[in-house]
Write a structure and sequence with these properties.
With 72 residues, this protein is an alpha+beta fold. The protein has one domain. The chain is 39% helix and 24% strand. It has three helices and four strands. A four-stranded antiparallel sheet has the order 1-2-3-4. Strand 2 and strand 3 form a beta hairpin.
Length: 72
């Protein structure tokens, strides 16, 4: 669980900053406790979902995480 804690700390540190999708759409996220929420989506992403994705790393692209995020 130690690796996810370092990654999560970086995620928390960058909340509120603008990021862009592969197609150029801007988004911002916020973190409350162990949950990330993207301003453009009606979905909460718990820290456990990021931990599951991290265990899959490396992956060929973001599509590899679809099942993790949807089933998370």
């Amino acid at each position: 669980m130690g690796q996810i804690n370092g990654v999560w700390a970086r995620i928390v540190a960058h909340q509120g900053e603008a990021f862009w999708t592969k197609t150029g759409i801007a988004f911002i996220y916020s973190v409350s406790g162990d949950v990330l929420r993207v301003d453009r989506a009606n979905q909460n992403l718990p820290k456990s979902t990021f931990a599951a994705a991290l265990r899959m790393w490396p992956v060929p692209g973001p599509g590899a995480f679809n099942n993790v995020v949807r089933d998370g």
